[in-house]
Each structure stands twice: as structure tokens, then as C-alpha cells.
Design a protein that fits this description.
The protein is an alpha/beta fold and 357 residues long. It is 43% helix and 15% strand. It has helices spanning 2-37, 53-56, 102-110, 136-149, 152-155, 166-174, 193-205, 213-224, 233-239, 294-311, 320-328, 332-335, 340-354, and strands at 62-69, 72-79, 86-91, 113-118, 159-164, 181-187, 244-249, 274-279. An 8-stranded mixed sheet has the order 1-2-4-3-5-6-7-8, with helices on both faces. The protein is globular, with a radius of gyration of 23 Å.
Length: 357
């Protein structure tokens, strides 16, 4: 019996040790999965229907700037400087750089704003092996605003913020960190990075991983440090009195309006100057479709079907010459139209904020 007791004791100790190590193992697994998920967001190296800077270069010269975030140099671009009396700082979404939003940027330049737009860490023309994670956009913007403060011509201008998705989180989070902002427009933003990570991982694996929230938060701690990992949009909005317009599509497929979006946490918001705009027009209420007018969206849908049919005739990727020839037959002006109705609402919100005593 003594020998059996020893064996059982060793087995018990081994099981206890295994149970003690299980959380640490889960932290490692979750952290490696999260960090491996985030890649660089480079500009596409093939012809697309999206207008790039080449289309606007002659009419809209820009000034190139740079600043450092950690070990990475980020590239920034100033559009519409000169006589502008208001500065809009624009933050792009994850997966590319600010030029994905050139149509919207130029629209705001035409409305009298100077627009400062940077490519985030690991994005576009900026340095970095990856975008690092959902919190990085807030860190990049914080550094960008500090850099703007050092530039006499820009630092003196009234500041407005606008961002989409990754950038929408950044501008909402910045609201509670700055007291010199006139207004903020956060388009399709998420509230809590850890919550969105858990939600997206659950969707990818087909499992409910909400019980692993602690481990996703710990991954944020390991990536961004104790001074940053708890940063979120809700607390920052509530620390602010800045007018903030939260815009979200009712059928957003990336950041659902009823779960991880900032607007899903509206009951937690105490800033009296928050306004919420839910876009629910069918077809124009997705994560990216909110930026296009309905006439452009119907045309784009038709051309996408034609393009898919064209691609189905090839075993591999569509040859570049065939792709370029197809694009020559697309009405690019229509495809690149801005949702004037939406931006009219944003501009009115900004004007109203500027007129506050």
C-alpha cells in the first residue's frame, strides 16, 4: 500500500503541476496566435479601380513628413496646407495605408481643411514588420499629434480627428487624452481591443472563446506594456467633453454594430456630447460600403460580378494585362465617388462643434 500511496502522491503532484501550468500555456498559445495574425498592410502592387495619388498629384500637391514610433519611422502626408484654417488628422483602417481613403481626404481638402494623414506602423509607406495589433493605431496617433504640436504652422490650427475601423478606435481613444480637439468622427470603430480579438477568434474557429477574455487581455499586456494594454475607446470618450460622432453601419461584417462596436456600448457612454449615427440603408451599411453613394455601389456590384466571371476563365491569377484592360473599361469616376450624404453630416457636425462657445 505504501508504494501505491507514493505513486498516487506523485500522480497528484504531476496533475496539480499540470493544472498550474495550463494557464501559462494558454497565455503563450493565445499570444502567439494573436501576434501571428497581424501582418504588414502594404499597398497593392497591381492595378486597381481605387484612385491613388497619381490621379490627384497635379491638382493636390502634398508635403511629405515623418516621425518615429518606437524603432519604426512612420511616413505622413499633408494635403491642402497653405491657407487652410482647420486641420483634420485622418487615421486609416488596417490592411493598407492612408491612400485607400484618398477620395475622402481630397473631399475634406475641398471643404477647406488641411489634412494630415499618416501611414500607421507596418502600413503603406511606413516602417514595421507588422501592424502589431489593435492598440497600435492609438499609439501611432498619440505620437502623430505630439509631432504636429512641434510644427508651428499646424500646431496652431484647430484640430479635428477622423478615422475608420483601426483608425476609428484611435481617434475615439485620443478624445480622452487631448483637451484641444474641436470634434471627432469615429467611423466603424471598436470599443475594446481584447473584446474584438476574442470575437474574431471565435468566428474564425467556430467556437465561443469569450471565456478566454483574460488571455486576450494578457496578450495585449505582453505586446503593449502595462501603460497601454487597458486603453479602450469607452473610457477615453467618457473622460472627454469633446463632441464625438460615432458612425456605424447596421450590417458591418467586420465590427458588428451589436457586439464589439463602440456603438454597442452606448449604455456605458457618459460624455454628453456624443452623437450616434447608424447607417441602415441596405447595401450601404457595411464596413466599407458606407463610403460610397448607392449609385456607385450598384455599379460596383455589377462590375464585381463581371470581374468574377472573367477570373473564372483562368486556372491561376488573372494576368496583369487582362486585369489592366478590364479596369480601362470601368467608370473610375463613379467607382471613386464619395458618399456625399454621409460626409455632409460629418461636416455639419464639425461646424456645429466649432460654433460652440
Amino acid at each position: 500500500m505504501t508504494g501505491k500511496r507514493k505513486i498516487l502522491k506523485r500522480l497528484g503532484i504531476t496533475l496539480l503541476a499540470g493544472l498550474a501550468l495550463l494557464p501559462a500555456a494558454l497565455v503563450v498559445i493565445v499570444h502567439l496566435s494573436v501576434t501571428g495574425y497581424f501582418k504588414r498592410g502594404d499597398y497593392k502592387d497591381y492595378a486597381t479601380t481605387k484612385y491613388g495619388y497619381e490621379h490627384y498629384r497635379d491638382a493636390y500637391p502634398r508635403e511629405e513628413l515623418s516621425f518615429s514610433v518606437g524603432k519604426n519611422e512612420l511616413r505622413a502626408y499633408l494635403y491642402g496646407g497653405g491657407e487652410a484654417e482647420r486641420l483634420l488628422v485622418f487615421c486609416h483602417g488596417m490592411g493598407s495605408g492612408h491612400e485607400e481613403y484618398l477620395n475622402e481626404i481630397i473631399h475634406m481638402v475641398d471643404r477647406g481643411y488641411a489634412v494630415f494623414a499618416h501611414d500607421g506602423t507596418g502600413s503603406g509607406t511606413s516602417g514595421g514588420d507588422s501592424v502589431r495589433g489593435l492598440l497600435q493605431s492609438a499609439i501611432d496617433l498619440e505620437t502623430a499629434l505630439a509631432f504636429i504640436d512641434t510644427l508651428p504652422e499646424l500646431g496652431r490650427l484647430p484640430k479635428y480627428l477622423m478615422g475608420h475601423s483601426w483608425g476609428a478606435f484611435a481617434v475615439a481613444e485620443a478624445a480622452g487624452c487631448r483637451d484641444d480637439l474641436v470634434a471627432v468622427a469615429s467611423i466603424a470603430g471598436y470599443a475594446y481591443p481584447g473584446e474584438l480579438l476574442s470575437e474574431q477568434a471565435s468566428e474564425m474557429l467556430g467556437l465561443d472563446l469569450s471565456c478566454l477574455g483574460f488571455f486576450f487581455d494578457t496578450s495585449q499586456l505582453l505586446s503593449f506594456g502595462p501603460q497601454n494594454y487597458r486603453r479602450n475607446a469607452v473610457d477615453s470618450i467618457n473622460r472627454s467633453t469633446t463632441p464625438i460622432l460615432l458612425i456605424h453601419g447596421s450590417d458591418d461584417e467586420m465590427i458588428p454594430a451589436d457586439s464589439s462596436a463602440i456603438v454597442a456600448h452606448r449604455d456605458e457612454l457618459t460624455n454628453p456630447n456624443v452623437e450616434i449615427l447608424i447607417l441602415d440603408r441596405e447595401g450601404q451599411n457595411g464596413h466599407n460600403t458606407i463610403f460610397r453613394p448607392t449609385e456607385a455601389l450598384s455599379y460596383i456590384a455589377r462590375k464585381n460580378r463581371e470581374y468574377a466571371a472573367l477570373c473564372s476563365g483562368y486556372d491561376g491569377p488573372l494576368p496583369s494585362a487582362v486585369r489592366e484592360n478590364y479596369i480601362r473599361g470601368v467608370d473610375l469616376d463613379l467607382v471613386n465617388q464619395v458618399n456625399g450624404e454621409l460626409f455632409g453630416q460629418i461636416e455639419a457636425f464639425f461646424d456645429q462643434a466649432a460654433s460652440r462657445p
